[in-house]
Design brief:
This protein is of the alpha+beta class and 439 residues long. It is built from 9 helices and 15 strands. Helix 7 runs parallel beside helix 8. About 12% of the residues have low confidence.
Length: 439
């Protein structure tokens, strides 16, 4: 229980920290993204409205006359793109109006795709990229676009003179966003690792009083159960002597028999409390249980054979579907107690003239044991509590003359967890009540 509580504490802290980190860094990244996109959009609009601000107009050379996608594919590496001024800085430049931005390549293209005018902006774009942009604009009618794979953005407008096109190299913007994204991921991972270590220490510190109280309670239950065994044994021995007396009156014999019944019930309760204490200690690692290989299939079949008469008394039919040869490593006495608890519980609460089905199968690396009985379903509000100690539901777990102490399923849960497994229950009127143990 304490391990689960510690894991929940750590999980809650990690989720809260993760949500805050993602929110803060995500907002920062989104702000940067919007700023950079605004920079690109402003640069494109500026290139269209004032294409020759700091740049001299460049008259198309002979190799640019004709179709645009042909003018840049002449096989000559010394085309007009390579003749731009290499002295222009790579960072932001001024467009002549005191506003920073990215250099934009301006082009005026007529309806036949012939380049009429360009500027001399120092953009680092290859011919294939420009050809692809112009093709999208002229053939597909795209008025704007942003392609992160080619690191380019464009904006176009149609005029009487032709199509005005502005193209901006977004390599610096995309690189900045990618770098911030990587940095944010690294920050999240490092922070989560640091908070995992911190939350682990905090969980240990915060749960130390609870762990101490739980250990004291567990030790008290174990010690009290041990101490009660001796006087109970004496009481039962004395009662048995009295029961063998032939001179007792009928009234006295009824009192002795009643005392014997109550003492036997108290003995069962003490044994259950001892079993719970031992399973708690084993699950907590403070006590080592037996660990040996045994045939679980044979154990389940033997328990089914033993409870066949019990099921018959309750006018039920016990069906056993067991895969042969399933072995388990653990404490065979404890596991036999678990199997017996589940089958006995199904026999007690199964409806008359119905089948009680016990299944044992191997599912990958897990062993699955399920016990199903038809009868009054457990109320949904009671399902989360059926494995709690001393918990009893009037509808699902009480039956005249057969109600127990409310410890059987708690013991079964403790045994399953001590063996590193889990136990769960489902209940409905259609499919009945099914207890499932996975080991």
């Amino acid at each position: 229980m304490l391990k689960r509580l510690r894991r929940k504490f750590i999980a809650i802290v990690m989720v809260l920290v993760g949500v805050v980190l993602v929110a803060v860094l995500g907002s920062s990244f989104y702000g940067t993204y919007r700023t950079q996109r605004s920079l690109v959009d402003d640069s494109l609009r500026m290139s269209l409205s004032n294409p020759y601000g700091p740049f001299a107009m460049q008259t198309p050379q002979d190799d640019m006359i004709g179709e645009f996608w042909d003018s840049f594919d002449d096989g000559d590496d010394d085309d007009w793109l390579d003749e731009q001024d290499d002295d222009w800085p790579d960072e932001m430049i001024d467009h002549g109006e005191g506003r920073g931005g990215l250099p934009g390549l301006f082009m005026l293209i007529d309806d036949q795709g012939i380049v009429i005018e360009t500027n001399s902006a120092p953009v680092n774009l290859d011919s294939d990229t420009i050809r692809s942009v112009v093709s999208d604009v002229l053939e597909h009618g795209d008025s704007e676009g942003y392609d992160t794979s080619f690191h380019v953005a464009w904006l176009s407008e149609k005029t009487q003179a032709g199509t005005r096109l502005a193209i901006v190299d977004t390599s610096s913007v995309d690189t900045l966003l990618a770098e911030q994204g990587r940095t944010s991921v690294i920050i999240v991972l490092c922070t989560m690792l640091a908070f995992f270590a911190i939350s682990s220490l905090l969980a240990t510190w915060a749960l130390h009083p609870v762990e101490t109280a739980w250990e004291q309670q567990r030790r008290f239950v174990s010690d009290a159960s041990h101490e009660l065994k001796t006087p109970l044994a004496v009481i039962l021995a004395n009662v048995q002597i009295l029961q063998r007396e032939e001179g007792l009156s009928d009234d006295a014999r009824r009192w002795v028999d009643s005392t014997a019944d109550e003492a036997n019930q108290m003995k069962e309760l003490v044994n259950d409390l001892l079993q719970l204490a031992r399973s708690d200690e084993s699950a907590a690692g403070t006590m080592s249980m037996r660990s040996e290989d045994f045939d679980l299939s044979e154990m389940v079949e033997g328990a089914c054979l033993e409870f066949d008469a019990v099921a018959f008394e309750h006018k039920c039919q016990l069906e056993c579907e067991v895969v042969e040869g399933i072995h388990l490593k653990g404490d065979p006495d404890w596991m036999e107690r678990l199997v017996r608890i589940l089958i006995d519980n199904a026999c007690k609460y199964g409806a008359e003239n119905t089948a009680i089905t016990v299944r044992l199968a191997q599912e990958g690396a897990h062993t699955r044991l399920s016990v199903n009985n038809m009868g009054n379903p457990i109320d949904p509000e009671d399902l989360p509590h059926v494995f709690e100690r001393f918990y009893r539901s009037d509808k699902a777990r009480s039956r005249s003359g057969e109600g127990g102490f409310g410890l059987g399923l708690a013991i079964a849960k403790g045994i399953a967890e001590a063996h590193g497994g889990t136990i769960a229950v489902t209940s409905s009127a259609e499919s009945g009540t099914t207890f499932t143990v996975k080991l």
